[in-house]
Amino acid sequence: MPSKKVRIHFEGNTLECRPGTTVAAALWENGVRHLSHSPKYGRPRGLTCARGHCTACLMRVDQIPNVRTCELTVREGMEVGRQEAGTFYAAPMQKILATGSAFFPVGFYYKWFTRPPFLSRLFLDGIRPMTGVGRLPGGGSRPLALPPVTETPASGAPTATDLGRFDTVVVGAGPSGLHAAATATGRVLILDDHRLPGGQRHGALRRLADQPDSNLTRFPVLKSLLDRIEKARNLADTRDDLTFLERTKAIAGYHPDRLVLRRDDLLQTVQFDNLVWAAGALDTLGLFPGNDTPGVIGPRALYRLLVRDGLGIEGRQVLVIGNGPDFWLSAALLDTTGAKFSLVPTGDGGGDEISAAVDLQWPLNTGLTLDGISERGEGRLQASFVAGSPGAGEVGTRLSMEADLAVICGRGKPAYDILYQLGANLKLQPDLGGFTLPLSDDPNDGEYVAVLSGGSRLVAIGEACGDLPGRHHISADGVEKP
Amino acid sequence: MSKSKVFLCCCEDVTLQEFRDAFTEGFTELESLKRYTGVGTGFCQGKGCLSEAAGELAALRDIPPCDVRLTNIRPPAEPLTFAQLATLDVPDPLDDPGSDT
User: Considering A17, A51, A81, which residue would you say is the last residue of a domain?
Assistant: First the structure.
């Protein structure tokens, strides 16, 4: 169904975009891979998280600075531009500071530098352009042409609403969250930042299932993932007293029992007796040289770009590196798009999946370790690898591969910030992917639970406590075990 | 291969090397490292880097990861406009017993 193209203006050019896609995805398709530049080193940044978390896609849209373009839908006539960081000053100033740092005490804070006044002014004038992301149109001294501020909100303007108190609030409608919501007692509210319940992988898995001669049957790990999601959805469907809030995020927690939720411009508050934290995990790209290169993304970003935004990547080259269910879901999803993809499985395991990939004649490169990713011209990635098992006393051979996107798959890190804000004591648990609630002291439950001083109870389940995707072995009341 | 930088915090452009240097200079808590290097102070407020930074700190100090103290994380978890904030009626965050720094 070819519908009319939407035209946006980008730095003097008019670009044609598919209606309904996001600005960041539309720019990528039009060959604009650098969306911003980093504040200190002026490095190019491009598509990264695709969920409104990071800094990489912040651009100026219709004169408003710092707009997250990965979550903004294209509109006819939209004016989009990059906000250039003060790179002109940054490089020489950094050299000066690096040389001069020997004369400053450790922990020097620039505001302590007050005497002599003329030197202080010179110093501040020098370092100020190093901060921020550039100047506003018109030199920055002129006010922006923004709508006038009125004291009372215009009629129809959203005001925060209070949803009242629920026995259980479930954050995240993936398989774990849905299962918890379906089995919890009393008034239950469940929210998710997607339009439909099912979690971060549901759209991707559904697309696979809808393919003729679907690859789902060849990858039992993906089939069981979809089965678990569908089962949890059906279970939740049997309850007609569940309140589901779509496209809603929990953006703040106030001790001990209050959450602030956001959907677009609308803020809502809600109170709870039990909070089931099933917010899933965030992409972890890992620490390797060039891990900030535009086009290095995680699997969750890939699902959003392909399923939500419909990113056109036919004929593009994509490298998929890593292991786990997300590695194979990324590969199977890319197989439906017409992209040219190469797989670099790392780590142990995945033997069954590897033989399935061999049967499908997918390009496989085994026994490689990622050494770094760099950019060759705008938007072309070059990933270099070391062959052989490192540490065996031999220097492995190096080889490199080019691509438009590199998807790094591995264990995600649990989302945790709201739990902390509510007053939970979080522990770093690397085997669970990052910070999450500690395992309960009570041997009876074996859960990731915190009871706050105000009496409210927090439970982390699913990927939010480092579980592997789709294994909802803990229900809201902690009864169900594997 | 390349001499390309390893980025710990992409919002504030803090490299892994800068974080290690700051540790060598005597900043041994995540909170002071955050203040000194800027790690976790950007737009994402640490979503992208605090777990990694804490893991690196545990390795540098050679302590169990669960002993690394997390820095204070304040609401909201993502940037809001003043117009959005103005619609909200929430308790004074200064009364929040969860805050200790």
Answer: A81
